[in-house]
Amino acid sequence: MPERITVYEVAVPKELAAGLRATELARAAQDDAGLNAGLSKLGKSRLLYAVDQAVNLKNEPSIRIACQMPMVTAEGSKDGNRTTNISYQDVGLIANMEGVDQPRSSNHGDAHIEVEISTVGHSDVSISPNAKAPLSHKIHQTFDGPFTSGEPIVLLSVESAADGDTATAYVTRIELARKE
Which of 123, 147, 164, 172 has its CA 20 to 30 A from that of 179? Predict the structure, then answer.
């Protein structure tokens, strides 16, 4: 089953943020160009990820565009030797799927899809004299239900920005389609 996933980040004025609905975005999302046009009306948008990959939902596939980012979590001294603790965190897009594809005569199925979008940045919080705490940012989106082959599934997460004037919307468009 070919699959297309696109993830957009959109800066949305705060007065529009509360009224955003995934079902309304899905109407404009019949293709990537339609979704992009609809999102650009809301605010400045940028494509974060685009994936075309064939998957079989029965095998519980995972799509990853991610890397393991090393992060200093602590520094110290032991017996006069300087020590540094490092942990690794997945940064990027991770989509896990499972589901049931209906018989060939049907264009329907059931799916459970979990999407994680993560980034790591810097903060001003000191964890030792020489190290600042990393800033980890994760967005989790989930779809659980029926789908129709070729019709987009749109997931939406919105968070307010520190400036209070804009919100950041993460819009994920997923299209499950049958191989011909």
Answer: 172
